[in-house]
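Researcher: Go.
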Amino acid sequence: MSCFGCCEENDNNRTAASGGPYVASHSAGNDGAYLSANTPSKGAQTVKPQPIAVPAIPVDEIREITKNFGDEALIWEGSFGRVYFGVLKNERSTIVKKLDSSKQPNQEFLAQVSMVSRLKHENVMELVGYSVEGNLCLLAYEFATMGSLHDILHGRKGVKGAQPGPVLSWLQRVKIAVEVAKGLEYLHEKAQPHIIHRYIKSSNVLLFDDDVAKIADFDLSNQAPDS
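Model: Structure:
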C-alpha cells in the first residue's frame, strides 16, 4: 500500500516531543493511509494534475528541526519510513514523514502531493508542506495536540500499561462523532475527485484543542466511480 501512511501501531506524538502532560499517538493508523501509489480502479475519476497548494520546505530546515533525523526527534518507524516531530521556523509544530523513496518515483510523489494539498476542510488532517531532494521525499503534517481518539479511550497504542486519557463526556463524544461525519461528507461528496475512506477507526480520528476532530488515513487511489 501507500508510503504516505503509517503503520497500525503508529505513535506519532509523544510527551517528550511536545512537552504536554498527555500526548498520544496521532496522524495515521495503518499502511493504507493518505496517498497510494496504486493505479485508480476502473471507473475512478481522473483529474489533471494541478500546482501543489502547500509550500516546499527547504530540506535544510527539515534537517535542523529533526536534529538531522536523529533519534531524539524520532516518533515512529514503520514499513514506509520514519516519522519525526519538529517545529518549523514559522513556529508551527509538525510531524515529518521521511518516506522510503524507492517505493514511489518523484513525479508520481509530486502528483499525489498536489492532490492531497488541495484537500482543505476543518475536519480533515492537513498537509502543511513537503520537501524533495534527490531520493529524499518528506511530508509535513499538522500536529494533533491531543493525540488520537483511540489513545484517549484506551491508552497509548503499543505502550504496555498505558492508561486512557481523561474520560470524555457525552457531549464531547457527540461533537467528535459529528465532526468525523463532516470530514467523511467532505471526502465522499465534496472533494474533487471524491475519496472513499476505508479505514475509519478510533486510531484514525485525531483530536485537537477544544475537542476538534480530524480524519487521517484515507486512500486517494480509492476514488468514487462517476456513477
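Model: The CA atoms of residues 44 and 225 lie 4 Å apart.
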